[in-house]
Design goal:
mainly alpha
Length: 416
């Protein structure tokens, strides 16, 4: 086939993947808004909109240069505003930039749910710009831009580390420094349920995210090829999500006596997060094991986070942080050289070499994100403050921050 036609097909494939990842912003918005109370849902969806607005702009201005520009093993320094920007992707630069900007928006949006119902909107704007313009691109340079982690053999095919561990780690430090919502924890530290207002909306968001994830993972091939690889990735993605939903349902059913829908949905997402790094390097059987454990990790990750009195209304740390780490480590356990990994994973006789590299990379990324974003949030906390005042929190951020009711036909009462 003519090379021009092949390049065109690959470009359309990557653009389709980018469009699906952008559509995931709708999934995040519906999921997170459904998981919180009605009086804060417009504020949450506003954050999802503005995340992608900022990600699109700042990634074009500086993010691509930091991530893929020529520089050193830590950061790139060329290609600002895409002027003389290097491009090693094999597809047109503009298509690749759009695809990566969509990933930056997804990483930023993970934090929105963890800080829901109490963070000042202007503070969230500052955070969103910093993560999209600097934090995500720097980690991306280390792993996908030829930086130091890629040089030692660290592997993350579609973003369990670059997107989800970055977002989950940032969500953890943000929620910790922000403090819990009013009424979330009792004096003895035991948690109360502050129920979400629209679980069917959250379910719609979960299905949208599941659908969009096929663009997230399979689109990361950047080429259609003979169809074999994208088919494997798509199947692995579906299987991990499906079994994650099943095991999380069983885990929460066994622990609390009810097959909770919200935790089942998070189990599906946990499976998707976990398979994102190894999706191209593992068999469907391994994908099932990875997703099954991810569903369990979600349930107990939520419990673990609450034991430290960290209030994460949507379970972002458990879904994206815990399973971002798990998926990254799974590369070193289940990855196969026959499927393109540089060396065999642990269970295929490769020893602990690849697993050790994956663990080292995870520790480096988590430390960088927590320290850097911790400094940012500490500075903001000591100057303009992180959270709204008590009365605004009780009334809801929709009115206090945006002057709008999400459901204007209904009378909203003050709740804890």
């Amino acid at each position: 086939m003519d090379e021009t036609i092949i390049n065109g097909i690959n470009t359309v494939w990557v653009l389709l993947g980018a469009f699906l990842v952008i559509f995931m912003q709708a999934g995040f918005g519906m999921l997170e808004a459904g998981f919180i109370r009605a009086k804060n849902s417009s504020n949450l969806i506003m954050k999802n909109f503005i995340d992608f607005c900022f990600a699109s702009m700042v990634f074009f201005l500086v993010g691509y240069a930091f991530m893929f520009g020529n520089g050193n093993s830590i950061i790139g320094f060329s290609g600002f505003l895409l002027l003389d920007a290097p491009n090693q992707s094999g597809i047109p630069l503009y298509a690749f930039v759009l695809f990566q900007a969509a990933f930056a928006g997804a990483a930023a949006t993970i934090v929105a749910g963890a800080v829901a119902e109490r963070m000042k909107f202007k503070v969230y704007l500052i955070y969103s710009v910093i993560l999209s313009a600097f934090i995500y691109p720097v980690v991306g340079h280390w792993i996908w831009g030829g930086g130091w982690l890629s040089q030692i053999g660290f592997t993350d095919f579609a973003g369990s580390t670059v997107v989800h561990t970055v977002g989950g780690s940032s969500a953890l430090i943000a929620a910790y420094l922000l403090g819990p919502r009013i009424g979330k924890f009792n004096k003895d530290g035991s948690p109360n349920i502050l129920a979400g207002h629209n679980i069917p909306m959250a379910a719609l968001g979960t299905f949208i995210l599941w659908f969009g994830w096929f663009g997230f993972n399979a689109g990361s091939t950047l080429a259609v090829g003979d169809g074999e690889l994208i088919s494997l990735i798509a199947l692995n993605t579906c299987l991990a999500a499906a079994i994650g939903g099943i095991t999380s349902m069983l885990a929460v059913w066994g622990r609390w006596g009810k097959p909770d829908l919200s935790m089942t949905m998070n189990g599906i997402l946990g499976g998707l997060v976990a398979i994102t790094a190894p999706c191209a390097f593992v068999s469907p059987g391994a994908a099932i094991i990875i997703g099954a454990l991810a569903g369990i990790f979600v349930v107990y990750g939520v419990v673990w986070v609450e034991k430290f009195c960290v209030d994460d209304p949507v379970g972002a740390v458990a879904v994206h942080g815990v399973n971002g780490i798990w998926g990254t480590l799974a590369v070193g356990i289940f990855g196969q050289k026959a499927l393109g990994l540089a060396q065999e994973g642990l269970i295929f006789g490769g020893g602990f070499t690849q697993l050790g590299i994956q663990l080292f990379g995870v520790l480096a990324v988590v430390s960088f994100c927590i320290i850097s974003m911790g400094i940012v949030f500490k500075i903001i906390k000591s100057t303009v403050g992180l959270r709204v005042d008590k009365m605004e929190e009780l009334k809801g951020l929709d009115i206090g921050e945006h002057g709008i009711d999400s459901y204007s036909d209904f009378q909203l009462f003050l709740t804890k």
